[in-house]
Amino acid sequence: MNRSSRLRLLAATGVVSLVAGVGSAYAQSSTITVGATVINGTRTLNVKDVTGAAISSLTLGAGHGGALLVNVSDLNYTHVGYQVTATMSNLYPYSSGYQFNQAPIPSSAVSMSFPNAMFDVANLSTLVTPLVHLTDSTGLFTATPLDSTVSGTTTSVQTIATVTQKSLSGVLDELPIRVSTGSGGPFSNPAAVTGQSGTFNPTAVDVLDGASQSLTALITDLVNKLNTGVVTAQDLIDVGLLDQNSVIAAAASALGVTPDQLSAAQITSILGSVAAQVTDLQPLAGLTDKVLGQTGSYNTLPQLSLTLPAQQPAGTYQGELTFTLMDK
Hints:
By secondary structure, this protein is of the alpha+beta class. It contains six helices and 17 strands. The protein has a five-stranded antiparallel sheet with strand order 1-2-14-6-9. The chain has a four-stranded antiparallel sheet with strand order 10-12-3-17, with no helix packed on it.
């Protein structure tokens, strides 16, 4: 083998060796599950009879009460107000169908009122994320005292079981939604009934209002509620308001060590000794509202009355009353 051949062989061998070195690099992976909570609440309008049973029709006139129960129910719904309005069609002579070619009872003969302005709020709770202040009350952290605020676990806090219009006045400022009955009044302009042609500009009568309001008093109430019976971090962990990993990480940082350097006995001592207090609530990222969702049932009792026009022909009349719920 001449010299030039030997050099080519060594070069080729070197290339093979280099490729083999890259191919043999050691690698491994570790996979964990990452969870996320998305809050998609619901807001529902329900119209019932005064006992709370389902209702599909209501008869007005002599001997017939025209009372209804109008309910708005929130389930972890975003912190916005609402308004319920009602529209009324004319009441047309009815015999297996609407007789549009005969004289109706005009919608303006029907009006809505709210005797004693009755309404109530029931099962009210607020979805929040507490901010927890951790401090060393035992001298465990002599070099660098523990003084840290961590995020707690998102939770729903109940503040009201049931209050009526009469008992609600004292806690109105502590509600995410300030509730009031509507203004009522006559249905001056009619709406269409289902399938009726024509152009209509119906009168929308106000039924129930929920106004989103300032949260200062509510937040104070919620913070106080969350702090009831709380002394140590372990107290909040036990009721599901705090993740112990947050406490351990904060404690390890104050001690200047990594969490894995803490023994099981040290962790137990820290969780049971470090003082904890909910000081505020944490809004969603990029927002300022500290109420993440609201749950509650809001009821009012409107009453319909009918004033018949003079010389209205006898017979059976039927129309449609429509309630509409909108955020505001």
